[in-house]
What does this fold into?
Amino acid sequence: MDSDPGIQIPEPVKDIHPNLTTLWLEALNRPEIDMQRMAAESIARASQRDIPGLDKAVPRLEEILVAEESHPTARYAAARALIALDSRASSDKLLETSQSHGADLAQLIEPALAAWENPAAKTVWVERLAAKETGPRNLVLAMRGLGELQHQSALPSLVAIANDLTRTSAVRLEAATAAGKIAESGLEQDAERLAGDTRSPRFINQFCAIRLLAGHSSAGAKKLITELADHDEPAIAAAALKRLNEIDYALVLPMAEEAMQSPDPEVRRLGALSMLQLPAVDHIVPLSKLMADPHPGVRSEISEGLLKLSEKPDLNEPIRAAAMQVLAEDRWQGQEQASLLLGALEHKPAADRFIELMESPRVEVRLPATWALRKLAVPETIPALIAQASELTQRRKSTNQPGMDEQVAHLFEALGALQAKDATPLLVQYIPKRVRMNNLSRGSAIWALGRINEGSRDEKLEDAFTDRILDFEPRPSEVSLVKQMSAIALARMQAVDHAPMLRRFALDDSLFATSGSDDSGMRLRMALLWAVKELTGDELPTPKPMTIGQDSWFLEPLP
It folds into this structure.
């Protein structure tokens, strides 16, 4: 019902007060610490929201950044704002501040300087890497910066730190990561030595070995990483499989099925990824088994991957057959994903099983199965759809089962798509304003009645839909969705007598909000305009787009 008919609503426009930036600049110039801090924080946040003129704040932000009398919180906020504004011209001031005003500022500023490839920062990092007295936090920042810059001269020091068993695990891993970003060859021997060394804390050497080879694709690197992919520790195996997939999916393929049996979800996912990227008919059944994976991310990624692979003619039928097998099994996770996949493929032989699953004890299964029946739109399912909708209608009078409103809405959409006239008495029950009927069910019932009676006048239905459109009584007010579907239904039934009412309603600006984040009113208005055009051929002017505010700010201009 959201896409039939395909009514396009105007994109909302942003409501930006022209004096917003000016006001924040005034706040930055105030002596109060919190005023400076909150203005700088607002500028940083506003930089992600296309508010113009923020670059005018750069000089004052720099003043707060370097002034000795600035409060640490205001200085930190100013630095964050300069980084958010991508003020690369402020790099030298930011670097100087990061070195003289504490570790927190360094943690904020130095990653930005690395991204900006600041040469002065590189000099600082090289010196810090060579100094024996450098603390762990500053050392990690230096290694990350040099790794991002791929500074070749730092490579020997980084490899030495990665091999140094007296260092902390965190420092060694950071050194190996940085070295792996710099070198594309030459670290195979170091990695092999680390991989075979069991003296350090559990598995750190193996992690370091894999990270050292992050840019390597030599035969030696492939051999070592392949050996580590069979490691008993899932985290090591996952890291190795990830690197092998980055080099060549074919390297993982020989071990993919074994990886897909791992107790670790990331190992299973990485094994399956090679099969998805190098598809073949004999990969489909092993992949389909992961549609029932206990990890939601794994099973959804596999299902989406199989759906994409179904576009290949030689894989379409095997995928459907494998999904049908999963659908027939008892695991609810597999039933969920197979319903989604076979529904998207509109696989009509699955209809009988979907009917059974409409009564599943799991809402995760009931909803996809019912949605799939709506996608299939098989006429033979009409009696079952009506029976299920009738049962839920009775049940909802005494209970509020999770997902009931959504399931009934799918059922009604299916009946509308099938133009099932026998469902009319049931659908009509949902027209009056009753709290327990819930809004999705009522909207879909009215949408379905419009489809069932398309091109056919019915005075009682038309009056009932008109009553919904003109219902402005509070406690509760009639919802926009019901009004919207009532207008669409009137148009489909060619209820030309009601066109003047629809026109008046559509053109009455006082009935529609012009700002805010709720677009239901705009959807209703566009449905009214569509209905008038369908009934009269008149194309009424498109209303102005809604305006949405730019968030709530600590300081805003008065209206």
The longest helix spans residues 520-536.
